[in-house]
Design a protein that fits this description.
By secondary structure, the chain is mainly alpha-helical. 61% of the residues lie in helices and 0% in strands. The chain has 4 helices and no strands. Helix 3 (48-57) packs across helix 4 (63-94).
Amino acid sequence: MKRRPEQQTKNRRPHGSGRPPWIKWFVWGVLIFGGVLVLWALLLMATRGVDIGRFVDQGWGQYADVIVRNKIKALWHGAFMTFCAGGALWFLATGKGLRSANGRASARPTRYSS
């Protein structure tokens, strides 16, 4: 009961790829999470007046505006940093940053080095 060759290599990564197959899904997950943070920040910006009113009702007074502003800034900052991390992971996962102009790995010595 030997497997056919196409079944044996179906779930394996190609030789020399050097990256695990799940890395693509992880990077996409990071980028999607950044998108969720952007949507959350936009939603908070749209309902800013309601949030300020809720904090005023809780007794925060003049600090309510500052609290809501800082929440919005924190969400935008988190979204930006998440996209930066996702971009860096994408850059590292694709291997474009590790290649030189001639297509060889930059840390690999050439045959005719001086």
